[in-house]
Amino acid sequence: MSKTETDTSPGGAEGRDEDLGAAGSQLSTAPREETTVAPGLGVIGWVRWFWRQLTSMRVALLLLLLLSLGAIPGSLIPQTGADLNKVDEFRKAHGTLAPVYDKLGLFHVYSSVWFSAIYILLFVSLIGCIVPRTWQFVGQLRGRPPGAPKRLTRLPAYTTWRTTAEPEQVREAALALLRRRRFRAHVAGDAVAAEKGYVRELGNLAFHIALIVLLVAFASGQLYKSDGTKLMVEGDGFSNALPMYDDFKSGSLFRNDELVPFSFDLKDFRATYEVSGPNRGTPRTFEARIKYSEGAYGKEKPATVKVNKPLEIGDSKVYLVSHGYAPVITVRDGRGKVVYHDAVPLLPLDGNVTSNGVIKVMDGYRDARGHKDQLGFQAFFVPTFDPKSGTMLSQFPSLVNPLLAVNAYHGDLGVDAGQSQNVYQLDTQHMKAFKDAKGQLLKKLLRPGDTLQLPNGAGSLTFDKDVKEWAGFEIVQEPGSGWALGGALAAIFGLAASLFIQRRRVWVRAVRGADGVTVVEMGGLGRSESAKVPEELGEIAGILYDQAPGAPDPDDVHESTVVPAEGAEK
């Protein structure tokens, strides 16, 4: 049998397009890029011209690029929605740039006017591209593959042979064969027309629709999301209500009554570390064991929250994000009365959990003369102290040899002024330091069970033998996260389909020649030049040739020869 050929003659592509007509059209629903001139039709004409430009693929790609570029400053510059303290620090450190950034909206990129404008224009552009292409694609699905062109030799893949089988038999065999290979096929005149690869265009449309889903999910996630943090010591409880959060931020359309009702108690926190080798001190496991209940009267259930394994309750996810130590401190006044007894969370400073913090005694304290006063202690804690190191730095993250360093102040803590304070910082502006016998700042290193006696019978501070651990949780509620994940997966599969699947058409023509012998012609056409179309056409032709074998050449009955159609290569 014969072979496939590719037309490489000058002007072949242009001539081929003219000869193919409807057979070579509608292999894609992509709009044609045409040079347009702004019409002089007044307001309506300008609106139409603007709409055509906005819904063109070129503008959609440009807007997508601008959106990506616009997200860069949102990643490099501190954002008010993420960390207001870092924004304040940036303003103090960059007095010249900060006003410029404020005018450009670079401290709140994702809610700025210019970013929103790009976002909305991209959204409209995608919809304007997708809607007409979808209707056009639906029309193609409802229709049939177009009939064969007059000259199949103009196709990039072509083969022909002569056979003794009847034309009707060849067409029936070709129709059955193409349908078995999942082609949409039908008999059109003297040929069988077949088409395959609609998934390519479906994947293309799915990719663009998925982008719209991602945009909508991103917008809804920013508008309706909530994100809060809570530091909890072992034994503490939490209820998902706004006053319970240490820090809370939400989208502009989020309402407080939309918080998922649940509560949980932190029963135990456990962490393990590498004890030897080059990775000594590297965390191996972080586990927070909790008991939670859904709703106001839900039954308590045990759960374990790990890093990157959050607890999911409805639309909320509870992440484990940090941990540290909370030494139990007991403070007594000048008369020996306990005025403070609690676990004090201290913030880690390094990977070995060297920590610091403050202890504030605001109410109930009286000095040796019975006068009301307030106490403040600065605390520095190391879970593993090594005397040989000569420094107050922890040598290992676990509680091997804990040591607490404290110094003491008394006076006005500043909490009665009604202004908020950082619970981990001590404002000593209106306080006096306790002095030791040498007139120096009173400070002492305490091991579990040790006590610091304040001078002149002012009281004492005891570092209890119990050292608890605390865990930091982030409670996130993003209603659009599921849609975003679905859109991302659909975009990946749609893009893969549009890249690796080719839309192609095959025609099989069987007519009786002048000598009464049936002439079979086969041609294939793909959306783009590809070796797959000739290979597939050759495979189909080989199977069909077995069902309609070649007829002997009248000039040489001893050899079976393929007679190519006009323009074919021998």
UniProtKB/TrEMBL annotation:
Listed A to Z, the keywords are: Cytochrome c-type biogenesis, Membrane, Transmembrane, Transmembrane helix
**UniProt keyword Transmembrane, yes or no:** yes
Q: Where is the ResB-like domain?
A: 57-537
Keyword Signal listed? The answer is no
Primary localization: membrane
GO cellular component annotations, sorted alphabetically?
A: membrane
The subcellular localization recorded is: Membrane
Top-level division of the source organism's lineage: Bacteria
Q: What are the TM regions of this chain, as residue ranges?
A: 59-77, 113-135, 205-224, 483-501
Which parts of this chain are annotated as the region Disordered?
1-33, 546-570
Q: Which GO terms describe its biological process?
A: cytochrome complex assembly
Q: Its membrane topology, per UniProt?
A: Multi-pass membrane protein
> What PANTHER family does the entry give?
CYTOCHROME C BIOGENESIS PROTEIN CCS1, CHLOROPLASTIC
- Its protein name is Cytochrome c biogenesis membrane protein
